[in-house]
């Protein structure tokens, strides 16, 4: 394990929310590490703090206490713009609700981050075509998101997350809105892409099928880690 | 480019809302455009008419002649002054006049008259004088002691073209002046009161009759461009610096009119302000609604690494695309209306007389500023009003907005 690189590391992460005067301890002191290239999952019942934890890791939300290192960099040290650029270049997001931009076509949704990065038109197009083939959506680049099924939309989201080759893919309950057959297909596809590209995948889920495919599983309950499993895949 | 494209497509997501926003902007622009064209046009028309009518744009007199006219308050060497004035760039023409009073008799009728000596050639160049003759002819060169009389005066003394009138007055040297003048034509100026006493003679005849030598009482100047009156007024003042003469632009000698016009134009700015307010409220409403609806989208964009500044741009682009389109349509409407009114004018229910001219119709004007002022106003209002919702969109907290409900 020591020769493997730690890509995500948290230290005593805490986050409280206050709603109508009631304080909710969403995340209560979480320490864990993820190694580069892993296919891992945070599991636990609804409301246990999975989304909050992922948001703290990606810097979309700021912790009340504790630290997050991504690829060796302490993200709480970064300014807003720095963090925003870091996220753009290093993290790919897959959301439960897909969250594609409705006015953009499939191709435009996928190339969005590359546009922000200033990548040239030709290379953008080539990479879009390439990734669309990988996620099995070749030929649909000019469709609008509303013209696609849920499973297809989630494939576009996966393509959008991966096309700019970030180091980390964070997926918050990516299969929760899909039927189990579609979900399984997508998971197998992501596992394959993980093998192929070596990108680190971190899921949150309460889907058994995700857990079965995960290399490491972190079990959360009431904002705390209650179990860690590391499965050695030979 | 990408944000412009997104903004453009966003416009069509809420067609109804976009339509009403555009309608507000188009209406605001067109109204402002027409009201400016109307205000500028009507006043430039009036100013143009009364200055060309008789008064000229700039007048020169002996110091306090206008307050207390007297035959002795004269402009000496008027020809030299006139030559110097013509050398100033932007001056169109000048003409000299002599004023006095006298008694005119024809047969058994006698009436008090205002003697006005005018330079036949220069006066016509300055005020199109020959157009005011309704009967008979204008002065003929080389013929001495011709007179043009106002139509009211003609009625009073029952004289017509060809009649010989005896005029009595006092000359500048104190002697009694009297001579016989032949009526060459009848003059109508729209100012009935004026026409009841006016007795125009050639400047040379008047100077000789009144023994004025090389002196006149008034020089009227017209310029090429109304805008340049004040500048040229200053230049003439400079030329006449060391004399007892005073120079006045129309803004001074037609003070009452000028004040009323300025007050009225102030009213135009107030109506412009009201238009801004209406457009502002409409724009704010639209942008705020669409920002609130799409807060989740802005959250996604931010999560993907879009900078806040780009999100501000995205929101402002959207509003300004509608604004530019509306200005374009509004300009077409404003142009069409102003063009129509500049040809056909608007009839006043009550005509009025000023400076010897009668006004019964007002024309609008098509000028650049009636498009530029409303255009800048609409764009600026859109940017300023749009900035706050844009800032709100840019400040979207992605974690909060993305929470799945
Ligand atoms: N913005 C918020 N305001 C108030 N409470 C919140 C907020 N976000 C999350 N919570 C609460 O924090 C807890 C953890 O939520 P979450 O991280 O979404 O859990 P999970 O993703 O595992 O379902 C829940 O009790 C939730 O109600
Ligand atoms: Mg969740």
Descriptive tags:
heterodimer; A: 234 residues; alpha/beta; six-stranded mixed β-sheet; four-stranded antiparallel β-sheet; 10 strands; 35% helix; B: 405 residues; alpha+beta; six-stranded mixed β-barrel; two-stranded antiparallel ribbon; 23% strand; elongated; binds adenosine-5'-diphosphate; binds magnesium ion
State the end-to-end distance of chain A: 14 Å
Oligomer: heterodimer
| H/E element sequence of chain A | EEEHEEHEHHHEHEHEE
Basic shape of chain B: elongated
Q: Main interface pair?
A: A-B, 27 and 23 residues
First-to-last CA distance of chain B: 33 Å
Q: What would the principal axes of the Cα set say about the shape of chain A? A: globular
How many strands in all of chain A?
Answer: 10
Give the strand order, joined by hyphens, for the main sheet of chain A. 6-7-8-3-9-10
The distinct bound ligands, ions and cofactors come out as: adenosine-5'-diphosphate, magnesium ion
Low confidence ranges of chain B: none
> Radius of gyration of chain B over alpha carbons?
32 Å
Order of helices and strands of chain B: HHEEHEEHEEHEEHEHEEHEHHHHEEHH
Q: Which structural class do you get from the secondary structure elements of chain B?
A: alpha+beta
What is Rg of chain A?
18 Å
Number of strands of chain B: 14
Number of helices of chain B: 14
**What's the structural domain tally of chain B?**
2
Proportion of residues in β-strands of chain B: 15-25%
């Amino acid at each position: 394990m020591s020769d493997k690189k730690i890509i995500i590391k948290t230290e005593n992460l805490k986050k409280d929310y206050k709603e109508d005067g009631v304080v909710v301890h969403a995340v209560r002191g979480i320490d864990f590490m993820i190694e580069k290239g892993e296919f891992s999952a945070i599991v636990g019942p609804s409301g246990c703090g999975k989304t909050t934890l992922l948001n703290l890791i990606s810097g979309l939300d700021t912790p009340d206490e504790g630290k997050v290192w991504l690829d060796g960099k302490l993200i709480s040290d970064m300014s807003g713009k720095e963090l925003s650029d870091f996220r753009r270049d290093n993290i790919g997001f897959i959301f439960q609700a897909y969250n594609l931009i409705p006015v953009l076509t499939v191709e435009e949704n996928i190339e969005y981050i590359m546009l922000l990065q200033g990548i040239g038109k030709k290379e953008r197009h080539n990479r879009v075509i390439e990734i669309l083939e990988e996620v099995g959506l070749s030929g649909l680049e000019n469709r609008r998101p509303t013209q696609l099924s849920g499973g297809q939309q989630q494939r576009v989201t996966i393509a959008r997350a991966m096309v700019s080759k970030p180091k980390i893919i964070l997926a918050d309950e990516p299969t929760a809105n899909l039927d189990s057959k579609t979900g399984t297909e997508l998971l197998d596809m992501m596992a394959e892409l993980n093998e192929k590209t070596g990108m680190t995948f971190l899921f949150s889920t309460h889907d058994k099928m995700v857990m079965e495919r995960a290399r490491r599983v972190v079990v959360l309950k009431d904002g705390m880690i209650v179990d860690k499993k590391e499965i050695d895949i030979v | 480019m990408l944000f412009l494209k997104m903004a453009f497509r966003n416009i069509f997501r809420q067609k109804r809302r976009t339509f009403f926003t555009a309608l507000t902007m188009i209406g605001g622009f067109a109204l402002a455009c027409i009201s400016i064209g109307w205000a500028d046009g009507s006043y430039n028309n009036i100013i143009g008419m009364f200055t060309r009518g008789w008064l000229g744009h700039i007048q020169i007199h002996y110091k306090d002649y206008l307050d207390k006219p007297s035959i002795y308050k004269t402009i000496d060497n008027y020809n030299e002054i006139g030559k110097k004035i013509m050398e100033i760039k932007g001056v169109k023409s000048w003409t000299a006049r002599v004023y006095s009073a006298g008694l005119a008799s024809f047969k058994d009728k006698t009436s008090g008259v205002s003697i006005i000596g005018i330079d036949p050639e220069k006066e016509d160049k300055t005020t199109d004088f020959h157009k005011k003759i309704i009967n008979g002819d204008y002065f003929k060169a080389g013929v001495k002691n011709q007179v043009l009389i106002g139509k009211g005066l003609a009625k009073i003394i029952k004289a017509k073209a060809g009649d010989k009138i005896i005029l009595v007055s006092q000359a500048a040297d104190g002697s009694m002046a009297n001579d016989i003048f032949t009526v060459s034509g009848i003059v109508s100026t729209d100012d009935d009161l004026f026409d009841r006493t006016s007795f125009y003679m050639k400047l040379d005849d008047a100077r000789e009759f009144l023994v004025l030598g090389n002196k006149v009482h008034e020089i009227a100047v017209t310029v090429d461009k109304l805008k340049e009156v004040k500048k040229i007024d200053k230049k003439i003042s400079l030329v006449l610096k060391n004399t007892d003469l005073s120079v006045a632009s129309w803004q001074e000698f037609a003070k009452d009119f000028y004040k009323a016009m300025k007050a009225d134009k102030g009213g135009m700015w107030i109506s412009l302000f009201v238009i801004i307010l209406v457009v502002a409220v409409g724009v704010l409403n639209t942008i705020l609604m669409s920002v609130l609806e799409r807060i989740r989208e802005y959250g996604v964009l931010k999560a993907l690494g879009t900078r806040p500044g780009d999100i501000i741009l995205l929101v402002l682009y959207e509003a300004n695309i509608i604004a530019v389109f509306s200005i374009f349509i509004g300009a077409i409407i404003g142009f069409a209306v102003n063009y129509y009114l500049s040809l056909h004018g608007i009839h006043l229910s009550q005509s009025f007389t000023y400076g010897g001219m009668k006004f019964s119709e007002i024309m609008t004007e098509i000028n650049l500023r009636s498009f530029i002022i409303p255009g800048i106003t609409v764009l600026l209002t859109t940017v300023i009003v749009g900035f706050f919702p844009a800032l709100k969109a840019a400040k979207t907290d992605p974690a909060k907005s993305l929470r799945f409900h």
